[in-house]
Structure formats: structure tokens, C-alpha cells
Amino acid sequence: MIASEKLRQFTQEVFVACGMPLVDAKLAADVLIEADLRGIDSHGVARLSGYVRLYEAGRANMHAAHKVIHETPSTATIDADGGLGLVVAPKAMDLAIAKAEQVGTGWVAIQNSNHFGIAAYHAMKALPKDMIGISMTNASPLVAPTFAKERMLGTNPICIAIPAGKERPFVLDMASSAAANGKLEIAQRLEKEIPLGFVQTKEGHASTNANELKNGGSLLPLGGHKGYGLAAAIDILSGVLSGANFGPWVPPFVSFLNPLPNLPGNGIGHFVGAMRIDAFRPASDFKTNMDLWIQRFKASERISAEQPVLIPGELEFNMHRQRSQEGIPLHPSVAEDLQSLAQKLSLNL
Amino acid sequence: MIASEKLRQFTQEVFVACGMPLVDAKLAADVLIEADLRGIDSHGVARLSGYVRLYEAGRANMHAAHKVIHETPSTATIDADGGLGLVVAPKAMDLAIAKAEQVGTGWVAIQNSNHFGIAAYHAMKALPKDMIGISMTNASPLVAPTFAKERMLGTNPICIAIPAGKERPFVLDMASSAAANGKLEIAQRLEKEIPLGFVQTKEGHASTNANELKNGGSLLPLGGHKGYGLAAAIDILSGVLSGANFGPWVPPFVSFLNPLPNLPGNGIGHFVGAMRIDAFRPASDFKTNMDLWIQRFKASERISAEQPVLIPGELEFNMHRQRSQEGIPLHPSVAEDLQSLAQKLSLNL
Questions:
Q1: Contact between A150 and B301 using a beta-carbon 8 Å cutoff
Q2: What is the pTM assigned to this prediction?
Q3: Interface ipTM
């Protein structure tokens, strides 16, 4: 268990040691620590050494200066200058929010970026402004389309964050694959089988083997062909609309795999948006109804008396409160990884 | 088999016989016939008598005059005056397109409406304008949230239509439930079992019985809790943001069930949007990359040589071409239903 503030300080110092300006390092660290606080362990400091390796491989620009390369009153396209999505995505969201303040909604496509951490961080920036926030990204290909045995799509997550009144906000943050890679890794560690529908073999057969991905298999889209369509739409909005890479050309997050030759775009792509509630109806009316929505859904007749019906984001809010007080538990392999990072960069943890 | 033009003429006459102005009746008929042409038989003329029964029950205003009740440069909210979604949704989409022409994107929430047919009809209006179209709606509660045994959400569909260059557009049109009710009805007719994950019993147990919904059970969301989150987000954007009803309060499509008392909103709700491609990057660059996207995905390594990988919308485009030439096959029960409608309204079919 480690206090989140200690972990935040260390994360920030790691980015600074890689040449990132302090203001950007604070932002990147905040995105990672929020993931750990929310209980999304796979997207927090567990990835820190991965970002550093991307930098060492010359594939992440730590002093990137993003540029708006196209613009209308409600839209913009940003070239992230090869920097980290952790840094550019919150800034893109700020721009979307500023446009929404002016004309009701704002939508920003980002190209030439790298992985942006948890989608929820970016979408949730809209909440204090009484706006609905949306964020999505494409990612390294691991998921096979329906009827295919080839990895063509990332686990392409989408987040939609919706403010409420007295209740906590509705925050749906989900991968468009049946399971994210993190779930498979947990099953691998425990040497357990995984449910059918998560992965297939490299020949395209159903499998319950958590190691199938290592054997050349692929992840499966959420609920079959609909999940394929959803992942594809996220890929197109994030990749094709922004001018980033898409589909099988999305550069891999892991530094030991090289991007494919003849890439059709720049880096990986994201898409974020903000919609002012009062661009549609008075925010107070909306929030009153959102509170009613949340209360009514929590009161749905339960299958089992012990298991309440959950609102998207509820578990993460609870985890955030708990870990803010008690600290963040680090898996031994992550703790070790951070220690060797500290040693390499002459930092203390 | 019946020629689509004959069916279109009849459908139009039915709406006119219910007091709908001719221009609106043409539009409503077009939405239904497009569903049949695209092979979405459950959403075409099979529903015509359902709309008539809603009118007879005083729950559909056939001479509705929709009103814009809230507006910003990129958004609007429409009160559909209790009319059919078939009529108001295309008009809302026209408004979204007009706003996108002005400021890059346009987003319209609709309240006080009724069922809008296939989502694809509305979203696809954006395609000839070189825009991405989005449409969604909430619907009568049939789907249980994860851990619940109560019907709280509709099959809430979402469509995203994306233009390409030489290739046909990408058109994802999907329910957010694991299966739409139509699939269950087909299994009922054939007295076949359905896959696990489509429905649950009224106690919330897994079931393969296609009649489970009639027994008080519920549909299940796509792929479990993620599909619940997706259906919920569609419900909130369509219902809460517009000021329509939401969740279990969405008025039933079937006229023999009455809406609940003390409704929190007006009618059912939709949400549509249009994004100009060249608000993000030149449309020709985008279309070149979309063609590449489509060609590359069609060329994905197949699991079986006989089953090609499909692009969302591909089957519907093929069906549209075939049925435009050969006519629309009507299930005997639908043909009978239309004949009794003809008799009742003194029309010829």
C-alpha cells in the first residue's frame, strides 16, 4: 500500500526525468494516479515503465507541442506532435469544453498521439462545467472482427460522463472488446480458465485459455458482431477522422514491437467531445431527472437480495474514496517495476 | 412478394387515412419501406398496424406540428407534439445537418415523440452531405440491467453512418440488447431454442426459451454489464436530455398497454447528430482513408474461406439492391395484417 500523493510525486519525477516539462508531467501523472485511485490498475502506474520505454525507443515525444491544424466553431483537429495521449487528451478536452461554452458543443479529433490512459479522466473534465463528456481512442490491434482470425482492432474504449444533481455522476467507461487484456493477465496469474467469448485461437476457434493471446490468438469483440461494429466506429472516429493510423496500422504500445511500414496516418488517434446540458434544456431540470434516473435504477428489483444494481461509475467512485484514504495497493510485480525505474533514473520511491 | 412501390403507396394511404398530411405520410412511408428494403422486416410495414392502433388509442398525433423549444448554434431540442418519430426524426436530422453546415456539427434532442422506425434512415441522411450521421432512441422497457430482474430499458438502438469514397458507406445500426425482440419471434415461430445470453426468466435465471418474455422474463443487454451501460447512455441522451420519458417510464409501443402514471417527461425521446467531415479534415482525404479502411477489413484473414468478413451495413446494402429489383417478401401474418388494415380503412392493396 502506498499513499497516492507519494506515487503521484514519483510518477511526475519520472516524466520530468524523461525530459517532460513540469506542467505536462503533473498532468500525465494525474491521469495515471486517477486510474489507480479508481481501481483501474491496468491503466495506472503499471504502465509507467511502458511509457518510458516508448520514450527510450524514440516513439514518444516528451516535449511535444500540440497544434490545432483544423478548426470550425464546434470542432478542431489537433496534431499531438508525437507526444503522450496522457498530456494532449486533457488539453483537447479543454478545447472541446471552450467550444461548447461558445456554440453548445465541442468536438476534437487528435492525431499523432500515443496512449491516453483511462478514457474516463478526459470525459469527466466536462462534469464540473455541467456538460456531458465523451472520449474514445483507438489502440494497438488485438481484437478480431467477426468471421476473422486476424487482429485488426484495439480494445478501443469509450467513455461517456453525465452529470447528476445530488447523486454522483453517471460514468460509463468501457472497452469495446468482451474483455480487456488486464482480465486475461489476472486469469493467467491465477492459472484459471476464462469464459467463452473472451478470446479465440489463432485458427479462430473458441477458447477458454487465458494464454491464447500469447499463442497468436485474438481478443473477441463485445457480444459478437455488434461489438465489432462499435470498435470499428471508435477506430474510424479516432483514427480516420483525425488523420491518425487505424485498424491494424495503429502503432503498438509495447516498445519491442515496431510500427508497420507504410503507415496511412500519424500515430494513434483519439476523439473527445463536450455538450453543454443547457444547450438542450435547463441544467437544473436535467439534474433533477438524472437523480430520479439513478435512484430508480438503483431501486430495480434485484435478482439476489445481496447484489444491488449498480450505476455505471459507482464502483470506481467508491474505490476512489477508499484509496484516497487508505492508499493504493501495488501488485508485487508493479512495485518491482517501479523500483527498477527509480534506480535507472536515480529517483527515490 | 410485393413491389416496394406498391407497398409504399399503400403505406402512405394508410397514414393519410389516419389524418396525416400527405407530405408527412410520404416521409413516414419512406422510413418504413426503407426498413423492408434493407431487410429489417421487424421495423417495416410489419409495424404499420401498430402505428394505426396507437393513433386509434389517442396516443399518436397524426397532424403533429413539431416545435424547436431550445437552441444554440450547434444544438436544438424539439417537441414532437406527440407525433410519430417516423416523421419528426428525419426533420430533426435536417436541422442537425443545417447546423453542421453552419458551425461544423449539429445535435438535436427530441421529446414528446413516438417510435422512429430504423435508426439507419435518419443517420444516413448525413451521408450525401459528406457528414457522419448519428441517431438513437429509447424505447419501451424490455431489458433488465445487470443484477436486476426488472424491465428497465428498451432495446435502445444506435446508428452511426460514415461516408466512404468508392466503397459503400459504413452503417452500423444495432440494438443495445443482446438480441432484438424480432429474433425471439422468429425462434418462437420455428419452436427453436435461443442462445444463452438473450433472455432471462422473471426470476432472473438464464434461459434458452424464446417465449421467456411472454412469461414475464426480460431481454438481456449486449455482452452483459457493458451493454447495460450503453443502453443506459442511449436512454439518458434520448430521454433525459430531451425532456422525454426514460427508463421504465418510456410509454409502450403496443396500444394495449397504457403508459405508467406520473410520467417524468413527455413521450419517448430521440437524439440525432451530424458532423461535417471537413470540419475535421478535407473530405477527400478522409474518403480515401475510409476506402482503405473498408478494403483492409474486408481482406482480414478469414476463419472459414466461405465466410467473408463483413463491413457494418454491407448486408443491408445488398438486400436493398435485391429487394428494389425483386420486391419485398411479406410474411403471411404481415400480409394478412395489411389486408385487414386495407379493409378497415377502405383501401386497396
A1: yes
A2: 0.98
A3: 0.98
